[in-house]
Amino acid sequence: MRWTKSLIATLRDNPGDAEIDSHKLLMRAGLARKTAAGLYSYMPLGMRVLEKIRAIVRDEMDKAGALEISMPILQPAELWRVTGRWDSMGPNMFKLRDRAEHDYALGPTAEETTTDLVKGVVSSYRQLPVTVYQIQWKFRDETRPRFGLMRSKEFLMKDAYSFDADAEGADANYWKMYHAYERVFARCGLKAVPVQADGGDMGDSLTHEFHVLADAGEDGIAFCEGCGAAANLEKAERSPAPAQDAPCPPYSEVATPDAKTIEQVSSFMGLDPSLFVKSLVYAADGKPVMVCVPGDRDVNEVKLRRFLGAGSVALADFGTVLRATGANAGFVGPVAPADGSLRILADSSLKGAAGRITGANKDGFHLKNVDLARDAKIADGDYADLAIAVAGDACPHCGRPITIKRGIEVGQVFKLGTKYSAAFGAVYKNDKLEEKTMIMGCYGIGVSRTLQAVIEQCHDKDGIVWPASVAPYQVAIDLLDPKDEKVSSAAFALEKELEDAGIDCIVDDRDERPGVKFKDADLIGFPVRVVVGAKGLAGGGIEIKRRDEDKSKTRIVPPSEALAAVSAALAGR
Ligand code: ATP
Ligand code: MG
Predict the structure, then answer these.
(1) Residue whose CA is closest, atom 14 of ligand 1?
(2) Which of 384, 403, 432 is the last residue before a domain boundary?
(3) I need a labelling partner for 526 at 20 to 30 A (CA). Which of 98, 211, 314, 441 fits?
(4) Does any ligand 1 atom lie closer than 6 A to the CB of residue 108?
(5) Are residue 526 and residue 561 in the same domain, yes or no?
(6) Hey, what long-range contacts does 394-401 have (CB within 8 A, 24 or more apart)?
(7) Domain carrying residue 506
(8) Which of the 8 DSSP states describes residue 467?
(9) Mind spelling out the 3-state secondary structure of 336-358?
(10) Does residue 412 line the site of ligand 1, with CB under 6 A?
């Protein structure tokens, strides 16, 4: 391929809305162009990368025995109404209506469509297990589309769905996909780690997210170097030891005018935030509940929702807080709230806590010397692990201190059980001709997000450093003197040689200074750069350099040895 024919437009400056390196480089290297907020067009270079990732995903899915299908992006509302998700997906779903007034969604995912499809095709245990997948554009009206392809409104997702006759089969399928995912990400040149995640609506259901570790990641992940456990912070359990505070005198009021936050009150009183009890009123499925955690901790709303078995939890509105406690947020606490029947939950590390400071349920006041067991009505069973884990917390499995890292979720595997198959009546007949409900799993990979995750993990100050497997071209041939017949024919001869050997390459045949060509090649990040110029050729050679090595490692070889040298350079990538 020739550069002058390939619609490459690199940018000198970072786009104003790009906050993270991979977004900046995606745009500067000319892989994609922004069409509107959260919507991107893939340019030829970006398209090549996307296709290479798609091919790896497809290959691993096929090897895992999954069958490729394609279902409509435009999904009828009736299917979503079967599971109630037409409403529960909320504003995340793009909804539209046809001229006959029928409702549709632009598919954000496809559990409903797939279950309905398979239900119509599978009727006997002899057809099971079966796994189908598609690689297709998905749509989500994200609250904050950002970071380029990482969180966009339209993105390419591989979604697979397994259907099994029994739980053992469903388990086996889950792990088969888990291992296929490990191979997919490794082949894309990514270090992706599987971490335990929250089952969401599925309660305790088994699920792993695959995360690419990067400071720019939106998710926090708890790691234990001791036993290797890894969990999304949403899920990460702690087993905090109960407090063993000394008995304290009866509690008394302290005026804390204008000091509402823990930081404000603790600096006002000159006491460490950990001595405070942070009390928040939540509405769990609309019902108020108070949650107490140590002053230096935050409530983990995912754990809270799971503990309560609630459909939704959110901070209560101002009126609810006032009715439940008698005060405004900032001054509420577990001791004698206005509503004597308000349920109060506390983090396990507060069991046995005494001599603590809490809100007084009276605006402008706090209480000191609170002994939770003595002064607050908290049932024994309402002490639970409700706080977000922080670095240094004991691993619940081995007790060693955990560390926290940031990750980008590139994929997720999920045991669904019978949630969708039961709703759709997706049943099969077993060998005794009894009707049984199919057991499902679903497995997603963000193909377009993976593209950008590779950039996030593989770049340096000069640009992208593509792994050879997904690079737009494996080799860039910088033709330094395009007007020199002899030099160009050497470059084009090498291009042909490489292509015949199955190595894709692009010849930079622009009439530009060498510096411009080198800069662009580094920015786009072709794994191997070959320089063909009049001076070099006169000296008997062409230059070969790997993108991930510095100049000192440049090899100079005669044209006849170029193919072998390039292949050797690529072998290490
Ligand atoms: P997130 O928590 O990041 O919003 P999710 O858990 O809702 O993602 P899934 O439903 O698990 O996403 O979708 C499967 C995969 O699709 C994700 O692992 C992710 O790689 C990708 N993905 C999800 N939402 C987006 C998006 N808005 N833009 C790009 N990729 C996305
Ligand atoms: Mg997910």
Answers:
(1) 444
(2) 384
(3) 211
(4) no
(5) yes
(6) 394/238, 394/239, 394/240, 395/224, 395/226, 395/227, 395/229, 396/229, 396/237, 396/238, 396/239, 397/224, 397/227, 397/229, 398/224, 398/226, 398/227, 398/229, 399/226, 400/224, 400/225, 400/226, 400/227
(7) 473-570
(8) -
(9) CCCCCCCEEEEEHHHCCCCCEEE
(10) yes
Mean pLDDT for the chain? 95
What is the distance of C-alpha 333 from the center of its chain? Answer: 36
Say whether both 341 and 445 belong to one domain.
no
Q: What per-residue confidence (pLDDT) applies to 228?
A: 87
Order across the sheet with 555-557: list the strands. Answer: 505-508, 475-479, 528-532, 542-546, 555-557
Q: Is the pLDDT of residue 573 over 80?
A: no
Please report, for the domain that includes residue 40, its CATH number: 3.30.930.10
Ligand 1 pocket, mutate which of 50, 54, 143, 412 (most atoms under 8 A from CB): 412
Q: Whose CA is nearest to atom 3 of ligand 1?
A: 409
Can you tell me the distance from the alpha carbon of 300 to that of 380, in angstroms, rounded to the nearest whole number?
20
Ligand 1 pocket, 109 CB below 6 A? yes
pLDDT value, residue 202? 64
Ligand 1: atom nearest CA of 142 is: 27
Residue with tokens 């000192």: 552
Which atom number of ligand 1 is nearest to the Cα of residue 153?
27
Which of 130-134, 310-314, 317-321 has the lowest average pLDDT? 310-314
Each residue's pLDDT tens digit, 388-405: 999 999 888 888 999 999
pLDDT at 241: 86
Asked if 491 and 522 sit in the same domain, the reply is yes
Domain tally, the chain = 3
Terminus-to-terminus CA distance in the chain, angstroms?
21
* Domain limit, last residue, from 364, 384, 404: 384
Contact criterion met (CB below 8 Å) for 28 and 18: no
Least confident of 211-220, 238-247, 500-509: 238-247
Q: What is the mean pLDDT of residues 58-75?
A: 98
Ligand 1 mean position to 281 CA, how many Å? 30
Q: What is the pLDDT of residues 171-192, one digit of tens each?
A: 999 999 999 999 999 999 999 9
**Ligand 1 contact via 152 beta carbon (within 6 Å):** yes
Tell whether ligand 1 has an atom less than 6 A from the beta carbon of residue 446: yes
Structure pTM? 0.92
Residue 560 has pLDDT above 90, yes or no: yes
Mutation probe of ligand 1 site: the residue of 157, 178, 184, 190 with most atoms within 8 A of C-beta: 157
296 lies in a domain? yes
* Domain co-membership, 43 together with 125: yes
pLDDT attached to residue 300: 96
Note the ligand closest to the C-alpha atom of 94: 1
